[in-house]
Amino acid sequence: MAGYLDYLVGMLTYAGLYALMALALNLVWGMGGMINLGLAGFFAVGAYASALLTTRVGVPIALGVASASVLAAMLGVVVALATARLRGDYLAIVTLGFAEVVRLIASNEIWLTKGTDGISGIPGPGRGVLTPGEFNLLSLALILSVGGLALILLQRLARSPFGRVLRAIRDDEQAAAVAGKPVLAYKLRAFALSAGLLGCAGAIYGHYTSYIAPDAFQPLVTIYIVLALVAGGTGNNYGAVAGAGLVVFFTESTRFIAEAVPGLSAARGAALRELVVSIGLLLVLRYRSQGIIPERVVPVGERRL
């Protein structure tokens, strides 16, 4: 029974991390219309920054997470400035390339990141003092607290003038500029906030697992978060959270599918699992193309900049 409880707590923790990243993506894509496929890169920056600060410099965990979030936000501003004139597919390709550059740096700069060996022994809150079960529950409580706070703040932001301007930029960037809104400044702020949330998620992930390596930041991470947002409802923060839970449910409910089908090798079982996950998400998108919790369309008469 205890094993099942630990497994459930672990899956809820990963669902919380996915939800935090989906909220970050919803800010720039769902609200701002900027396609950012560099999620894994900012996630990795946060994880490595906090891991290095806490293991080599000896800073407290909370300060390490905060510093990693700030560093990721600053890097988000740099990426936003570099891609300021890009839109659509071009922006997606450049941000995806950024994520791959970060992963390659983590793989090759052995003096800093230990390369593919990864960084181990990352401290976690209460690790070594609490039992494994208690540590997992504490980690779940922390990620739910951070995710809940992020959800509340982003909901307030979505209803604020800042959020309305972001949606105006998404719908018609030129019209927003003609209305006198500093489009670039709003994009920079949105990218910084989004990257900061991703960095925070990466830092929490590192302290939860106590080990990070470049393989943990493959493009598949970005794909899962994009699927979570699209399935949950692009432009809706609650939809982002629901989509994250849905993706984790699909990926985990199919984990033991190979055991249910006799004669399958491990490789074929993994391929079958990916196929089932893909079909499940495609069915959701087929019958709920707007997402589980779609964005509320505000009537034209109620819209304000």
Compact description:
The protein has 305 residues and is mostly helical. It has one domain (2-216).
Q: Care to describe what's here?
A:
The chain has 305 residues and is mainly α. It has one domain (2-216). Helix content is 74%, strand content 1%. The chain has 13 helices and two strands, in the order αααααβααααβαααα. It has helices spanning 2-31, 39-57, 61-82, 88-108, 110-113, 132-159, 161-171, 173-178, 183-209, 219-232, 237-253, 257-260, 266-287; strands spanning 119-120, 211-212. The protein has a two-stranded antiparallel sheet. Helix 2 runs parallel beside helix 4 (88-108), helix 6 runs antiparallel to helix 9 (183-209) and helix 7 packs across helix 9. The longest helix is centred in the first third of the chain and has 30 residues, at 2-31. It is globular, with a radius of gyration of 20 Å.
